[in-house]
Amino acid sequence: VDLKINTDKLEGFVSKAAIYSYQQQLVLHQETLLNKTGKGNDFLGWITLPDETNEAMLGSIMQDAREIAAMADIYVVVGIGGSYLGARAVIEALHHNFAGLLTKQERKAPLIVYAGNNISEDYLADLMDVLDRYDYAMTVISKSGTTTEPAIAFRVLRRHLEQKYGKDEACRRIIAITDKSRGALKNLADAEGYKTYVVPDDVGGRYSVLTPVGLLPIAVAGFDIRRFVEGARAMKQLVTTAKTMDENPAFLYAAARNAMYASGKPVEIMVNYQPSLIYITEWWKQLYGESEGKQNRGIFPAGVSFTTDLHSMGQYVQEGLRIIFETVLSIEKPKRDLTVPAETDDADGLNFVAGKRLHEVNRQAELGTLLAHVDGQVPNIVISLPQINEHTLGQLLYFYEFACALSGYLLDVNPFDQPGVEAYKKNMFALLGKPGFEKQTEELRKRLQ
Ligand code: PA5
Q: Coiled-coil region(s) at which residues (predicted)?
């Protein structure tokens, strides 16, 4: 695999011995995950997904992607949390930064837009303004099939699609991705005759990017899902078999961040230097936040995009509360090639970088920031990839997933449940007057008076 992890810049904050002291526990947790004997063991289907995603599945998704590309300029992905962030993370990392402003011919694929990841009236109404003008198709993704945000968006958009194309044609333009037998979305898909893909029972939302949940939108966006799965497979082979800290990057990452946490640094900031990686950070935030933040424990996962945020959050990172460590996702080679031009009068005083690639300037900003933050008592972990493509992203996402499971076990929590997300839902249902919530409705309304 191409992914590398470097913990040299933790020196002076935690000893190498402290990091390596997790070694034995990690070997046990690796076994526990593979034998399915630990916490949350009914949600470990994601581990073998890279091997199980066969040619038949890839072929079927790629065929759908071709059909969708032929009929749609825009593809609406309706979903929230784990039923949305993985696809968006990969698509935005691979896309042209201004994909939305290119033509379909230039993009060679429909533009992917997202709905059901919020309940904003303005967002959905604005989206429909656009959908009035373009040919579109959509997928609705919900494992439970009962999540409020995507269910509301789908109710609205389905009506829009049916009014635009008629019921039969609308049906051809919808693919539902849901649980194999339960849930309102499954019943609806069966009743309406939508094509469906299944989210396996033993794969939780935030670990589902290698199922059709991630693969279908990524394929529709025009990217090579076979290479993506191959990248994940290569990483799976490594992180599920290597037994030492030096060979296994997931061991090292899980150990390093737990050592940081134990040393009094409870906030981890994921840093990128490419705006196209912002949604990789968002996906990572969900993965780690939902997996570890429970029982009053867990590293708080935050994200910044540099150098942009060096002009906002940079001040806090450099000199605020010393509770932070950073993990930099470093990309060695850009996709494009752009050089700073020379100017004869050098009015802006920038001729000292003339002739240099922008990436070289970005790289020196990255290295300079790393040293400045370490000097400011913010230790840094560096994860590097040679470049962004389907294969390296497959490696990266699987690496994060496996390391997250290990890290959650080191923390002694169940990394595969999310009991805390129910609290807001119950209150929202009660405040909306959902039948069955009458008592809570009254109590909550009183508290809000
Ligand atoms: O990781 C998770 O389990 C969650 O983020 C879910 O993916 C999210 O709540 C959406 O759930 P569902 O797919 O059931 O609509």
A: none
Cβ 381 vs Cβ 5: under 8 Å: yes
Mean pLDDT of the chain: 97
pLDDT score of 183 more than 90: no
Please give the single-letter amino acid code of residue 61.
Answer: I
- Angle (nearest 5°) at CA 4 between 203 and 224: 55
pLDDT per position as a tens digit, 338-395: 999 999 999 999 999 999 999 999 999 999 999 999 999 999 999 999 999 999 999 9
Give the number of other Cβ atoms within 10 Å of residue 438's Cβ. Answer: 11
pLDDT tens by residue, 291-346: 999 999 999 999 999 999 999 999 999 999 999 999 999 999 999 999 999 999 99
Phi, psi of 95 (to 5 degrees): -70, 160
Q: Nearest residue CA, atom 2 of ligand 1?
A: 205
Query: Read out DSSP for 82-119?
Result: GGTHHHHHHHHHHS-TTGGGS-HHHHTSPEEEEESSS-
Taking the C-alpha atoms of residue 397 and residue 232, their distance in angstroms, rounded to an integer, is 7
Rounded to whole angstroms, what are the CA distances from 284 to 2, 260, 404? 19, 18, 9
Q: What stretches of 303-376 show up as alpha helix (H) in DSSP?
A: 314-319, 358-375
Pairwise CA distance, residues 302 & 23, whole Å:
26
Q: In angstroms, how far is the first alpha carbon of the chain from the final one?
A: 58
> Cis ω on the peptide bond leading into residue 307 (within 30° of 0)?
yes
Sign of CA dihedral 298, 300, 303, 307: negative
The strand order across the sheet containing 380-387 reads 4-6, 380-387, 324-333, 267-272, 300-305
Dihedral of CA atoms 88, 92, 93, 95 in degrees, nearest 10, equals 140
By annotation, the residues acting in catalysis are 290, 425
CA dist 410 and 210 (Å) reads: 25
Work out the burial of residue 314: count CB atoms within 10 Å of its CB; fewer than 13 is exposed, 13-18 middle, 19 or more buried: middle
For 106, phi then psi, to 5°, come to: -65, -40
Q: How far is the CA of 227 from the centre of ligand 1 (A)?
A: 26
Residue 265 has pLDDT above 90, yes or no: yes
Closest protein CA for atom 8 of ligand 1: 81
Q: What is the C-alpha to C-alpha distance for residues 125 and 121, in angstroms, rounded to an integer?
A: 6
Q: What is the pLDDT, as a whole number, of residue 300?
A: 98
Decide: 69 and 229 in contact? Cβ < 8 Å: no
Return the residue whose CA atom lies nearest to atom 12 of ligand 1: 142
Q: Which residues line ligand 1 (CB under 6 A)?
A: 80-83, 142-144, 147, 150, 204-206, 290, 418
* DSSP states of 11-76: TTTS-HHHHHTTHHHHHHHHHHHHHT-STTGGG-GGGGHHHH--HHHHHHHHHHHHHHHHH-SEEE
